[in-house]
Amino acid sequence: MTRDHLHRRAVRRPTGPSMELPADFRAFHELHRKAYVHRAETILNNRADAEEAVDTAFEQLARCWPRVLRMENPAAFAWAVMKNRALDLARARRRRPYVLEAAAFEAVALRDAVDPIGQFEESLSLCQAVRDLPERQQDVIILLYFRGYSPAETALHLGITAAGVRSIARSARRALHQALDCKGIADDLAH
Fold first, then answer.
1. DSSP string, 64-109
2. What is the pLDDT of residue 14?
3. How many CA atoms lie within 13 A of 64 on its CB side?
4. With 60 as the cut, is the pLDDT of residue 11 above it?
5. Which of these, 2, 104, 10, lies nearest to 62 by C-alpha position?
6. Cβ-count burial of 178 within 10 angstroms (0-12 exposed, 13-18 middle, 19+ buried)?
């Protein structure tokens, strides 16, 4: 679904065909869409489905945009809407949420591995350990380490502070260390 298509669909529902979306909504959409698609893709393991889920989330947000703006934390609310739409689509397509793009992760990890089988086992262990993290820790780990967002960018998308992102990342790395019982795997996330 293209942004123009989203614009037409979102405008038609909340405000009527002749009105424009508010500039602040368009800016919010532009700022967050890429990160939302990245996270939805880790849930759905399919780019087209991720874009569909994100576009549906933005349509929902457009319909109640003035109310969203009055909320204490619009970014956190929008992030939750996006994740719910991605999970709804996963259920509708009878898929278990994927959480991580394991195949892509494994391909990168195995590319230069001295012991590809050992590296593959470690990759699977890491993917499972991240899947087992609490939801907020998953979000932070995926955006920071698997998608390469900075702490400030991650904070912006999640609707929390950069200090909060760093704190959550520390807790997640500790949990990964414990879950993996292998400091070397989780240490890779620290760099």
1. THHHHHHSS-HHHHHHHHHHHHHHHHHHHTT-----S-HHHHHHHH
2. 41
3. 11
4. no
5. 10
6. exposed
